[in-house]
From TrEMBL:
FMN binds at residues 109-111, 138, 183, 211, 298, 353-357, 376-377. Belongs to the FMN-dependent alpha-hydroxy acid dehydrogenase family. Gene3D superfamilies: Aldolase class I (3.20.20.70). This is FMN hydroxy acid dehydrogenase domain-containing protein.
């Protein structure tokens, strides 16, 4: 808590953000404008947004059992604290695809951010740059690829001006806020796919991430109830990447004027599944365009698929069930993680994504073998409240939460003490977490 008693370490003292909030409250009476308790934050977001905006990011498949399974899995794994360990200097840094980053957290790809703030993806891209942690842009984004890259660069410039102590490097040395991921939804027009890859690479997105579990939107009753497919409505958002793509517009621009769903229906959620044979082609194209930079598959829930990803030339995978939005009644992603790690943990970089709400969740996923953890709904909820300030507050709070947890649980280094350390967690098969709104208030 005392900033004068903090020896310099390899990563920022994120824990001091809690002290900063306490000091502001004690000295000036200034309190945070909204709660970062995840359940309270979700509820206040629902009150803040209209139904179409709220449910786009928060609808789940079917009865929502997969979403609940994700949270129950985190509840069943328990952290085993150590004591009398020197954690005065924590090292939260790790290396991800050649980039040394200050913490093992990245911004997951979420589409149509303009539903949550008029600036859309420019908000989280900038905050990710400020924090020095990776950002991933969705093909269903509501800002052009090039504009998002500039926002990410602008955030990184702020970080570099304000922080001369902690510098993080990219594959070619120098400061970096990367890796910068581009999440691809791949349609069946190869010319458009190539155009997106080229645009992403030219804009500094140096890791390609293909989502493979969402050729078709899952059955989401809370979206069906309000016909929540915003691409069909007047002044539709979500077409910005297509509308700024020269190949798409040359071939389909006139159709887009007549049908606002042309981009999203034909190039994003087109309903026609690809197979592993297409992955060979796509990896080859990305390697050619990027000079060999990594290719990642998002949507892995099975060890056999993880092995196939390795055999087809991928350098990484994202273990995720799309946060419970695609297959109702599916296995929790955290439950799938240990078997996948056992199969390919020494061959592939493994990113965990689904159901993450707290620093403890991040810790557990890392201890079970993930190399980094992606966060989605949290930052959307934050930006829904106060744009940049809200997104920054939520993400700095998550980083402080993880930093403080490592301090008090007795784990000093992410890479040495946490990642893959199954002795740091214990499985408890009984019990379920409280339902929504049932958490205790102290």
């Amino acid at each position: 808590m005392d900033p004068t008693n903090k020896p310099k370490g390899p990563s920022p003292h994120y824990s001091l953000y809690q002290r900063e909030i306490f000091r502001r409250g004690g000295e000036t009476g200034q309190l945070p404008h909204f709660s970062v308790h995840p359940e309270e934050l979700q509820e206040s977001t629902k009150a803040k947004l209209n139904d179409r905006s709220y449910f786009y990011a928060n609808s789940n498949a079917g009865l929502g059992w997969t979403d609940r399974a994700n949270r129950e899995a985190f509840y069943r794994w328990r952290i085993i604290p150590r004591t009398l360990v020197d954690t005065n200097v924590r090292d939260m840094t790790t290396t991800l695809f050649g980039h040394k980053i200050p913490a093992p957290i990245l911004f997951a790809p979420i589409g149509i951010n303009k539903l949550y703030h008029p600036l859309g993806e420019l908000v989280p891209a900038k905050i990710a740059g400020e924090l020095g942690i990776p950002y991933c842009l969705s093909t269903a984004g509501s800002q052009p690829i090039e504009d998002v890259a500039r926002a990410n660069d602008a955030g990184a410039a702020i970080k570099n001006e304000s922080n001369s102590v902690h510098e993080y490097s990219g594959p070619n040395g120098g400061n970096a806020q990367g890796p910068r991921f581009y999440q691809l939804y791949m349609g069946h027009d190869d010319e458009i796919t190539i155009s997106l890859l080229e645009r992403a690479w030219k804009s500094g997105f140096d890791v390609m991430m293909l989502t493979t579990d969402t050729w078709q939107l899952g059955w989401r009753p809370t979206d069906v109830n309000i016909a929540n497919y915003v691409f069909y409505y007047p002044n539709a958002v979500g077409n910005e990447i297509g509308a700024s793509d020269p190949v798409f517009m040359k071939k389909y621009g006139e159709e887009l004027k007549k049908d606002s769903g042309k981009w999203i229906d034909s190039s994003v959620w087109h309903g026609k599944a690809h197979t592993w044979e297409k992955i060979d082609w796509l990896v080859k194209q990305w390697k050619r365009i990027s000079g060999g930079r990594p290719f990642v598959i998002k949507g892995i829930q099975n060890a056999e698929d993880a092995v196939l990803a390795y055999e087809h030339g991928c350098e990484g995978i994202v273990v995720t069930n799309h946060a419970g939005r695609q297959v109702d009644g599916a296995i929790a992603s955290l439950d799938a993680l240990p078997e996948i790690v056992e199969a390919v943990g020494d061959k592939l970089t493994i990113i965990y994504d689904s159901g993450v709400r707290t620093g403890a969740d991040v810790f557990k996923a890392l201890a079970l073998g993930a190399h980094a953890v992606a966060v989605g709904r949290l930052y959307v909820w934050g930006m829904s409240h106060e744009g940049e300030a809200g997104c920054r507050h939520v993400m700095k709070s998550l980083l402080a939460d993880l930093d403080i947890l490592m301090t008090v649980a007795g784990y000093a280094s992410i890479e040495k003490d946490v990642i893959g350390n199954k002795k740091a967690v214990k499985y408890n098969p009984s019990g379920t977490p409280p339902g929504p709104g049932e958490h205790a208030h102290l």
